[in-house]
Design a protein that fits this description.
The chain is mostly helical. Helix content is about 65%, strand content about 10%. It is elongated and about 50 Å long.
């Protein structure tokens, strides 16, 4: 595990699984044919790739998430902060805010978050 970047089609596919899991792989093929116009082979190829990334598993023809949607996007976000901002959350937040002043509510929410996570 470690490569948490998904192409647009992979992301749509992952969302299909997350919203329906556990889902039979045969049902997943039907859904992808209807919603993405994919052939059976495409569905299984992409599923295999995402299973190898450690995001999903396909055991006994039932597809389940190894990582929840929230965990996946959390890991992706942390990797982005590490890669772009050298792991500095304050530098990320400064760039994210772009010079915009935080509201009192936002400041209070951040204080609460910091207090709960220190």
């Amino acid at each position: 595990m470690g490569d948490y970047k998904l192409a647009d089609a992979e992301e749509r596919f992952a969302d299909i699984i997350w919203s329906r899991e556990p889902v039979a792989s045969s049902e997943l093929v039907k859904i992808c044919q209807q919603e993405m116009n994919w052939k059976k082979s495409t569905t299984y190829t992409v599923l295999k790739k995402l299973c190898e990334k450690g995001i999903f598993c396909n055991d006994n023809a039932v597809v389940r998430a190894v990582l929840s949607r929230e965990d996946f996007y959390g890991m992706q976000s942390r990797k982005y902060v590490d890669d772009v901002f050298a792991g500095s959350l304050p530098r990320f937040l400064a760039a994210f805010c772009g010079g915009k002043r935080l509201s009192e509510k936002e400041v209070e929410e951040m204080r609460k978050f910091i207090d709960e996570n220190t």
